[in-house]
Here is the input.
Amino acid sequence: LDPTKYDAAKTKADQDGKKHTCDQWVDAFQSPDNGLNGITLNSGFDATSQTTAVRNAIKQLSFCCSDGKSAAFKNHAYLCQDPKDWLPFHTYSGKETNGATIQC
Here is the structure.
């Protein structure tokens, strides 16, 4: 989408509460046995041609984008009767997700 929206210095805590910058998160995701291993994120990157695992890894890093839209972002506003009602950052958890929290 818009590479200028990437904030390399933005931080997010891991499961142990330790904060890491977006650059550190991307490096971790690109390490062996992780979702972006072997993937180069540059101007030629096309999320639509990637595997589901790669697209999911990219979506997990969307917090690094100031607009919250990763390269794998899709506009699902058409799901609502009035597309202006779409809440892309709304989260949900319940029995359908086995208690896991998912984001629209």
